Amino acid sequence: MRILITAAGSHGDVAPYTGLGAHLRAAGHEVALAAPECFATLVGDSGLDFRPLPADPRSDPGAGPDTGAGTGAGPGTGTRAGRRGTGGRTSLLARAAAFIDRLGDGLADAAAPGADLLLLSTTTAPLGWHLAEALRLPSAGVYLQPVLPTRAFPPVVGGTRSLGPWGNLLAGALGQRVVDRLHADAARRLRERLGLPARAQGAQRRRREQRNWPVLHGFSPSLLPRPADWRPGLDVVGNWWPYAPAGAHLPGEVEDFLQAGPPAVFIGFGSMAAGDGERLSELAVRALRRAGVRGLLQSGWAGLAAAGDDLLTVGELPHAHVLPRTAAVVHHCGAGTSAAGLRAGVPAVPVPVLADQPFWAARLARIGAATAPVPFAELTVDRLAAGIRRAVTEESLRRKARAAARAMATEDGAARVAEAVERLADGR
Q: Which CATH class is domain 252-408?
């Protein structure tokens, strides 16, 4: 079967699908991954066919990081300007609209070489539905975030405070209406291009819901159980992980540093905080030294950098190889990084920035595998040092993280997706 996976956003929105695609390819399928052009090498190295989408999350203001963060709208930004009150939210919505405007044509172009099945990420699904209809293809959602309304928790981008069962459900439904409005114009143009009759975006969503369109959620039920009030077809299957070649190992410099002393604390903000590197680097170094621990700083988009016998700056590293050897992980709580730290059995110090990150930070703390979250806008040397000290000394945090890691070791999200693909291929 020819499978086209579509994903858009930052590294964390795309990388997990390389592992999913590689698993499906090993099962005998032909797999292509449509993603922003900057991920061509990442996709190619995983052995998948690459099809470009017209958005660069690094330089294109319409496609910032963490675009799969629960709205499917693509509005993320790691800059301080993007986090300021109502003006910041207006800016995010404008960025989302610009991103979505280009995404429809990009998805249609990506599907042009042909496919037998579409697997759609959170970000690409609202427009991918129209593509599946026009091409008469089976499709399924492969989501990294729980975006369907539920009484169990509030929308993942609407804050972490529960509004009560009915309040949560209502807020989730209202959030979906916002997403539908953001996609309305792009969906109309895409349907015209595809020769489809006019249909409102909200109506298209309702058709999918009424038909129990399958969505497989790639996170662990040990971190977030499946809500009891979700309809049939919405499943939590466990994580699928970024592709890692057999025999991969850490660079010699990193290996030497890890072996030269006690476990270090890993600090990284991924695709967040672009332009804040100098300030964050100084803050991180002071906090690490105040806590009395060694540090491994991942440069990321912020450009973190520091030097010293007790510090090492690194670039992109496979989380699966480095995080299990650390004492704790300070991170922005993107869906993928949150899962990777938990999989490693390592306590987290959550520093969420925006979008779904406060949600995952709160979940990590709720299961006892993380310290209390420190919002990025409130980050200080004192608060970071205190969080690090607690993470490396409080045994209950490590015990809860290890318990979650043991549960996650029994899960295989990619295999569950492969099973669903076989059912779709058989028309079930």
A: alpha beta
